[in-house]
Write a structure and sequence with these properties.
This protein is α+β, with helices and mostly antiparallel strands and about 150 residues long. The protein is about 30% helix and about 45% strand. It has 2 helices and 7 strands; from the N terminus they run βαββββββα. Strands 1-7-6-5-4-3-2 form a 7-stranded antiparallel β-sheet. The longest helix is centred in the C-terminal third of the chain and has 32 residues. It is globular. The chain starts with a strand and ends with a helix.
Length: about 150
Amino acid sequence: MATVSVAAEGAVGAPAARVYTYLSDYQQHHPRILPDAFSDFVVEQGGVGAGTVIRFRLKAGGRTRAYHQRVDEPDPGRVLRETDVNSNANTAFTVTPEGDGSRVRIVTTWERSKGIAGVFERLFAPRLLNKLYADELARLDRYARQNAT
């Protein structure tokens, strides 16, 4: 099966370590940067970094889908990954120092569905997710700047 991959990245006006803390803390910080398309966000287990298990709903393209994800840290302090328990989808957040701030890259990959559903995923999902991730990155930047210490 073919893989679909959608990526977006942007500058964040805070040091990489602080940005990674915001992304990896699913109890206090991460929910505050999620766009309105996310709803019913619940931490089931853990709450910070590897071992965290979350549930949420995502509305995109007029369709709402439930996700149940486990978090791991393939490169602690730099790469955080959410892997869906019920599908082959995963989203990785990579935080890299850049000057006085950082650069964050969000990449989601999944195996494309067969048939016409797969065609729609290939054509429309990247556009929808790029818009969603641009919003999330802007929210992360605002949040990081507002919470500077």
